[in-house]
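Notes from the 1:1 (GR / supervisor)

We went over the backlog. Supervisor wanted to see one worked example end to end before approving the batch request, so GR pasted a single chain during the call. The sequence is below; no edits were made to it. Supervisor asked that the structure be written out right there so they could see what the output format looks like.
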Amino acid sequence: MTPAVAIARAAGGAGFAAEDLSHLLPVGCRVDGQARLLALLIDPEFLAEAGWNPARLVFTPPPGHRLLGRPIRRAAGCDTTAMGGNRICQSCMQRLAAHRLTEEQISLLPARADPARRIGPVPGGRL
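Structure output shown during the call:
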């Protein structure tokens, strides 16, 4: 159980059961008063589309969401946020240069071998 879920359950008190708010809160949480009225106004479809996980109380909007997303990359296999107007992250720009490709040739860039880009050992063994 995440800390947020524990707090939500502990703060539930003797309010209304969350069965009618299962799109918003974990099972067993109770909500009453103005918080309940506000919760009832939230569209369940919007929450599902926006990446809300009611069981864990975690919000993870998909990168391409029309309102909540972030600029996404153009290179295949890259999930890095691309803040520039060209939608190419710094890492992929370096990969383009290494392959002697232009931005217009990004579709020719090979997919990343390891999209997670795990951090390797630090020289000397210290962070």
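Supervisor's comment: The CA atoms of residues 50 and 65 lie 7 Å apart.
Batch request approved.
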